[in-house]
Amino acid sequence: MTNIIIFAISISAGTEDEIIIERKEVSSCELSEPLNIEELGYTHVAQIEILKDITENKIHHQTKLIRSNTICPSCGKTTNKHGTFTSNFHSVFSDHKVQIQRRNCNCGWTNKFTLEGLFGSAFHPDLLKLQCEFGSDNSFKRAENLLKALNTRHRPVNNHVRISKTIEKIGSIIGEFKTENPVQTENYGMEIAKIAKKNFYISEMNWEK
Ligand SMILES: [Zn+2]
């Protein structure tokens, strides 16, 4: 008899009855005795892949809920579907493409249909936090290599140019922030990281400008 481990995630609606929208198998494998330490649990690459699959599935369901705007906020009439727009989303350990419904109205109103337009950034704040932590204490090239090791692969979003842009952007925000809340020089890297994690500051940015 073969033993199979099935790892599944459930997505449920936020109601008291906990309606299950989807159960999906993420990973399965034949259960066998580990013959060496490497076979115990998962490899680094396998862990990253599982996280990617779980994230992809959650995003798929979440993006369907993004501000549907079936009623025009400008004139109150019913809006029209106008295709979907695909945005890149950069999560902590994986990159995704998300589709957001475009809507418009006869009055001229159109919805926000990009992640930058909706949230100010296509980068998860925790990814920016990592880039700041590695980029503040290392050369940008070395920070790129450290993130490559952490992710088990190179991601264009973690290249040294992008890391330098993140540091520059967050640094400029701290420059403005500093006057009211002095930042300790010796903790500069960590202060950047903490600020990067605050959605308020991220939402103030437009990373493409
Ligand atoms: Zn309208």
- Which descriptor suits the 3D outline? flat
Q: Which structural class should the secondary elements be placed in? A: alpha+beta
Strand content: 15-25%
The description of the largest β-sheet is: 2 strands, antiparallel
Note poorly predicted spans: 199-203, 205-209
- Helical fraction: 25-40%
The tally of beta strands, per DSSP, is: 4
In short:
The chain is an alpha+beta fold and about 210 residues long. It contains seven helices and four strands; from the N terminus they run ββαββαααααα.
What can you see in these coordinates?
The chain has 209 residues and is of the alpha+beta class. Residues 199-203 and 205-209 have low confidence and may be disordered. The chain has three domains: 4-62, no CATH class; 64-119, no CATH class; 125-203. The chain has helices at 44-62, 115-119, 125-137, 140-151, 160-178, 188-196, 199-203; strands at residues 4-12, 20-30, 80-90, 95-104.
